[in-house]
Amino acid sequence: MNGMIGLFVSAFVSSTIAPGGSEAVLAYLVASNQYPALQLLLVATAGNTLGALTTWGLGHLAAKKFQVASILPEKKQQALAVLSQKGQWVLLFTWLPLVGDLLCFAGGWLKLPLLSSTVLILLGKLGRYAAIVWLFV
Is 0.85 topped by the overall pTM? Predict the structure, then answer.
């Protein structure tokens, strides 16, 4: 069970503003055959999605406190511009390294609907982790 908790924590932290290596943890656990692959997939996806939603929530809170987007660093301004221009479907790409966290933050800042944001983020994260599980089974 410690492996599952470690995977969840690693996936959660990896999806916030802190760097992490949840993919390596997942790959190791899948290859070790200690736990069912489907269970590992669900735990990693849940942790990573909840971490992304935490970042989304931080963006939402920041937008309430700071109404002018120009106070944001350049990378966050770029993420806002991309999301504003391309629409909510860009949240499917929150699994990408570096840009994914910015997209989550931008989604919250733009006050995109929580339910559809959650579904899109979850689908992107699930796809990435499913590929890792498939590679290491």
Answer: yes
